[in-house]
Amino acid sequence: MKNLRIKQIISMKADNQEMTVHGWIRSFRDSKAVCFIALNDGSCLSNLQIVIDRDKVDLTNIISDLTTGASVAVTGQLVASPKPEQPVELDAQTVQVLGPSPSETYPLQKKRHSFEFLREIAHLRPRTNTFSAVMRVRNALSFAIHHYFQEHGFLYIQTPIITASDCEGAGEMFQVTTLPLDNIPKENNSIDFSKDFFGKKASLTVSGQLEGEIMALALGNIYTFGPTFRAEHSNTSRHLAEFWMVEPEMAFCDINGDMDIAEEFLKYIISHVLENCEEDMAFFDKWVDPGKLEVLQQIVKSSFTRITYTQAIEELLKSKEKFEFKVEWGIDLQSEHEKFLTEKVYNNPVIITDYPKQIKAFYMKQNDDGKTVRAMDILVPRIGEIIGGSEREDRLDVLTARLKDQNLPVEEYWWYLELRKYGSAPHAGFGLGFERMVQFVTGMQNIRDVIPFPRAYGSAEF
Ligand code: ATP
Ligand code: MN
Questions:
Q1: Which residues, in sequence order, are CB contacts of 47 under 8 Å at separation 6+?
Q2: What is the pLDDT of residues 203-262, one digit of tens each?
Q3: Which of 385, 439, 441, 444 to mutate to test the pocket of ligand 1 (most atoms within 8 A of CB)?
Q4: What atom in ligand 1 is closest to the CA of residue 386?
Q5: Domain 2-99 has what CATH class?
Q6: In the list 100, 216, 391, 418, which could disulfide-bond 249, CB 3.0-4.6 Å?
Q7: Phi, psi of 280 (to 5 degrees)
Q8: How far is the CA of 389 from the centre of ligand 2 (A)?
């Protein structure tokens, strides 16, 4: 006798084969002679209908435990269903309650719950339709990401989560310390980090890029896919304090190659989800973000719009839209500007290149105009920036000058500079925010609802 998941069962031919199914009761209906259980086991959105003939199966001792949320094991025969919306149902022979679920207190009632409420019960929300569908799509995306890179000869590299190098910069890092916070050792009034665990100041990584560059400049094409931490105080629907980032780095690659790969990669992982998560995607299209399927199908077929930052600013200035943040050459594009460009002006994913060097990181390659760098951001509707990337500065003298320009401690970057001293090569890469990708594909509005256990400013439950 086989032990199958519901996803497999509902696609089988019904020829009275016997099987045991395990799952959680979504609903129970008692109509005296016959009872019905809608059973879900998390393998797919569909429930399996269990039909219990009371003349055949004695429910006397367990019927009060057949409530929403209870876990059961049911043995029975798979038969054709009279209902058109489901191909098969299970004709029960035995029903065993493994874990009852008192209905007076079970928080997941049959009605729709708000996503805010579900965040408070993150231990139960995977049992809802929406959240389980998000998790299956998230899984498919993660598989597709590995698949794309593995098929294209990229090595999967693990970069460190704890970093003790100052190079990652940006003041939004979480510190890692074992120093006693109530009695911090001081030396001339400043903290004596030589007494700390690593003998120096350490933090959680905000990006694996710099280490990724080391590996790319030896191995060719690499990618990382791991957790990333940013102490963002902003309470937005697209920022987390802990999120996952995909960061490929390609040697002997310039900004154009970078854009080509990023575009092909995005289309590949979207196609994979469209092909492999049909049921879940139809659910999102119907209940979460109507029209999403068509948007995604269109994106896979289209070519992304490619414009420069200067052109983007011109478009924004031309428009009659009232923006909260004033538009002028030199500003960092805000989410409202990004969304306007991708949703209203082009109605297409947009790649913006050649940003002013003042608003971008020191490692981006300078253009000959001396004002802009070879950065490229990819913007998509509803989200705005989903990818940030660039060609890296590979000239030792220019890179050193850039570090000094930005008042960064040149000595700390000795190894990063040596990559340019010994066998430097053009190289480029990008970072894709994994949760933003899940958000984009599913249409979920809040980034906290596409990760199992969100960590954000003021919140680290479960
Ligand atoms: P933003 O301007 O949207 O805050 P960023 O420019 O700081 O993003 P990058 O440093 O370019 O982000 O990181 C690469 C990608 O990582 C971004 O394009 C985005 O998809 C994702 N990302 C960045 N910060 C976060 C965050 N706090 N939570 C989730 N994803 C993030
Ligand atoms: Mn960015």
A1: 6, 26, 38, 39, 40
A2: 999 999 999 999 999 999 999 999 999 998 888 999 999 999 999 999 999 999 999 999
A3: 385
A4: 20
A5: mainly beta
A6: 216
A7: -65, -40
A8: 7
